[in-house]
Task: structure prediction
Amino acid sequence: MRTMTRSMSIILAVVCGVSVGGWAQKSDTQQASEKREPAYHLDFSISEIEDGKKINVRHYSTNLTGGNAQALKIGTRVPVESEAGKFQYLDIGTNIRAKTYGTPELPILEVSAEISNLVVTDQNAYHGQPTIRQMFISGTPTLTFDKPMIIGSVDDPNSKRQYQLEVTATKLR
Result:
């Protein structure tokens, strides 16, 4: 009878997830929650600054789970003639890539942004092909939460403008 009572206690403990003398195992839900990668919400801003004033700001956001990469791609595919009658397509616009790694206590963000646009002057065209202006910003900061971090900025060599990439991270879980 004593053996049967002990067996019933162990079965009851396993089914209910209660520990009886170290015999109970963790449920699948408990194990999954312990192994869950940290998740973040990232708000990106790309600001266009001229003479110290923001003249344009574009906002992008995504959710990201630790260890996984995420990409945002916004733009236009522009056909460019590569050989007689053959075309290749160039992606023009904004591309942002982000990935986190490290530990939950010290998360690292790896981020890059490429901004490209068409130059709109006839004198810059090369044999009828479009001229493309590109800017690239990247960084690998330690994440700080709930306050904006500037990843980097670049000057536009054809104007007095500067482009600045900023991110604000929020913990989701």
Confidence is low (pLDDT under 50) at residues 1-24. The radius of gyration is 26 Å.
